[in-house]
Every structure is written in structure tokens, then in C-alpha cells.
Amino acid sequence: MKPPDPCVPLQAFLVLDLSVRTVIWASSMVFTVLAIGALGAWPGQGVVGVTSGVVWKWGGVFAVGLVLYNLIYVAELLLLRLPIPTPKQGVYSTINPPDFRKPADRQLLYACLIALLTKARYEAPFPGFLVFHIANLPPMRWLMGPIFGPMSRSCYVTDPVILDPHLVEIGRNVVIGSGANIAGHCQLPDMVAIRKTIIEDDVVIGANSTVFGGVLIRRGAMVAAGSVVAPFTIVGECEYWSGVPAVKLRTLPKPPYF
Questions:
Q1: All structural domains of the chain with their residue ranges
Q2: pTM reported for the whole predicted model
Q3: How far apart are the C-alpha atoms of 170 and 164, rounded to whole Å?
Q4: Residues 6+ apart with CB under 8 A from 161
Q5: CA dist 182 to 25, 167, 203, 248, Å?
Q6: What is the rounded radius of gyration, in angstroms, for the C-alpha atoms of the chain?
Q7: Three-state DSSP class for 61?
């Protein structure tokens, strides 16, 4: 039996993605303007033909507005994530047209809805360029982990792309290089496997590497830059893996604090 053409559902996904992003962007902007007005922070003069002091006041308002916008943007992502159930781990068929009355197909629906919010998080429009910072600093950090994901005890200088944040757990003192991709699923032509990815303490994941769903990387391990860790792989403690697909090359010495 020939599988259905995925073009139509993918186009529907894009329309929904467009709509959700537009609503989040516009509502965050509206709430920011209203908040600045409620604070009485708008200068009484315009920015053309005024003194430098007035211009600096406008600059201060814009700076405060940027921070407020990003706080509101992250808060809306959290609120929209709350009512969506976390997909259950399992293997789900994509051959037949989805019937969301079935529990299995609903898991894929939940995953798609969370994917919309994940895209909005990592591809935030201007002026949402501080979303990464807001999401990783208190107090939003305390909410993002349990509600949105990933569950992490580490902090990063650059924002790794975590495709399924609700299915990724990251321990303490984990270094993730720029351009790394970490997933909680893997997809085949006829099915999607949803599996939790766990990265334990003191792990280094090199830049531009990819970690697929179902992977377990144990404490002190290192994945070399540009590597691809295949689904359901177990990387042992203090092991060094590299390649496409990544394989174990050697065992690293244990640090003295182990």
C-alpha cells in the first residue's frame, strides 16, 4: 500500500506554525507597550529635534522594553506549553492518516504542538534575541526546566538546539558546543520513535555534533565535534566517541573528583 503524501499535513503544520508565532510575537509586543505605559515610562517628547537628554530617555525606555518583551515572550511559551501533555515514549506509525481519537496518534499530535513552541523558542523574531538569556537565568530558568525542558543542571554560553526539550535530561557541568543538536526522537519513513535522551554529569558534546533520541551518555564522556551519535546508543563513562556514526575510540582518564 502506497503511503499517503505528507505534503498536506506538513502545509497545515506550517500554517499553524505561522499563526502561533504571529500571535506570540504580536501579543508580547502589545503587553510590553501596555506595561511601559502602566509604569508611566514613556517620555513626554518625541525623538526628533529634541535634546540629547530626551533621546537618552527614549534609549532607556527601549532597553527596558526589550527586556520586558523577552520576559513576556518566554512567559507566553510557558503558558502555552502547560496544557499540552508530554508525549509518551514509544514507536508510532506514520503510514496511515492520523486519527487523533486514538491514543497513539494523539502522542504525535502532542509532539507536533510542542515542536511549534520549540521552533518559536529557538527562532524567536526581533526583538526576541534575548530569549536564550531569559530562559537560562532565574527566575525563568526555574520554570523552563520543569515545564518546557530540558531538565538541566548546566548552563551554556551558546544555546544548543534541543529538538525535544521535554525528552532531554542534562546533568551538572555539561559542555555543549555551538551548533550541536540533541533530539528525543528519531524518524524513519514509516514510523517515529520517541525516546528520552539522558546526558549525565561532566560530559562534553562537541560543536556541530548530533545526538539522536534514546541515547544515554554517561558521566565524564566526550563526543567529538561534528560527530553523530546514533539512536539508542549507550556511551560509557569517560569514553571518547567520534565519527559519523560515532564509535568509541578510547577511554579517557577519570578526573580526580570522580
A1: 1-148, 152-258
A2: 0.89
A3: 13
A4: 122, 179, 180, 181, 182
A5: 26, 10, 14, 19
A6: 22
A7: helix
Closest-CA residue to 9 (of 108, 84, 90):
108
Q: At what angle do helices 7-38 and 103-122 cross, to 10 degrees?
A: 50
The class of domain 152-258 in CATH terms is mainly beta
Write out pLDDT tens, residues 124-168. 988 999 999 999 999 999 999 999 999 999 988 888 899 999 999
Half-sphere exposure (CA, 13 Å, Cβ side) for 135?
Answer: 30
Sheet with strand 175-176: strands edge to edge: 175-176, 204-205, 222-223, 239-243, 246-251
Tens of pLDDT along 54-101?
888 889 999 999 999 999 999 999 999 999 999 999 988 877 666 667
Among 222, 235, 120, which residue's Cα sits nearest to residue 180?
Answer: 222
